[in-house]
Amino acid sequence: MTDDPASLPTVLFLCTHNAGRSQMALGYFSHLAGDQGVAWSGGSEPGNEINPAAVAAMAEVGIDITGEFPKPWTDEIVQAADVVVTMGCGDSCPFVPGKRYENWELPDPAGQGIEAVRPIRDDVEARVRRLLAELGITAIL
């Protein structure tokens, strides 16, 4: 891979509140891809904070997502992404012709305890690992 960020595969993870699923996906992608790819996340209706159960579930696997915060997506970020992964934002998700889209059907962890969030976290990890392989990125163990 090259050191030029503009030439790296770029993925945008989107969900409604950008507080759970998309933040976990961003955490896994950043952790597993290292400097081989770029990832962003956003929400259609960003929440006030990242879901504490999502933070705790990710901490259990050694990934710290406490430095992130819910944020809206912008047209520029959507345009810049090579792959847009949607997770439950429905009709409010942006659509740009010619972009690669994936819709990941995942339960919403909002209001759930850590016991309910763990299987969602594990599903997100498996999906991120598949996406990395499809992008030709070797996951860092």
TrEMBL record:
InterPro entries: Ptyr_pPase, Ptyr_pPase_sf
Domain Phosphotyrosine protein phosphatase I: 9-134
Pfam families in the record: LMWPc
Keyword terms of this UniProt record: Arsenical resistance
Protein name, per record: Arsenate reductase ArsC
Species of origin: Mycolicibacterium komossense
Phylogenetic classification of the source organism: Bacteria, Bacillati, Actinomycetota, Actinomycetes, Mycobacteriales
